[in-house]
Amino acid sequence: MQIHNLIILDESGSMNSIKKETISGFNELVQTLKGMKERFPEQEHFISLFTFNGEGIKPRLYKLPVKGLKEIDGKIYRPHAQTPLFDAIGTSVTKLRDDLGDLADTNVLVTILTDGRENASREYTGTQVKRLIDEQKQKGWTFTYIGANHDVEHVATSISITNSITFKATSEGTAEIFSKERTSRMEYLRKLNENEDISSGYYDESDQGQ
């Protein structure tokens, strides 16, 4: 079973205050996925990381096996400029969709992390992104939205994402949300392994630790 972990990460200027924690959180997430190979040997994990700001959408990692993946650092992740959120989602999801095609026995988990609202997209509108997400959810893709400094639930539901969670854009808050994300991801993978429903409740604490 192939599992593609698509991370869409805000690299706009406001993320600078939590740059260190964001880099650390991503690297710890990769380590968690590496550890999943022992727990669920039949799962083959791949990571794609797209960062975004007013200068463009950047595929930092793309469809790379988790095994042997190196850590990212401050040379790769350098926050500045604005927040083209819709362009980032549209570009990255469309690329992965087109490249995966109808590959059998494949699951996709898309994670969006941003500390601000959309303010700079030129290619995609919210309506277009919602349509794209609806289409991929029909194919079994799972979407999650992690946000700060805006009405996270409203923005997420407006583009058809029901798995959303708010974090405080501080050092402590960022570390906490990445810890929560790792726990939720492990539970998601357990459900996949046991053929349980993964369509909703990604951040539902009542499901975790079972």
TrEMBL record:
Classification via Pfam families: VWA
Superkingdom, taxonomy of origin: Bacteria
Coiled coil: none
InterPro entries named in the record: VWF_A, vWFA_dom_sf
Chain ranges of the VWFA domain: 4-196
Cross-referenced Gene3D superfamilies: von Willebrand factor, type A domain (3.40.50.410)
Protein name: VWFA domain-containing protein
Organism: Rufibacter tibetensis
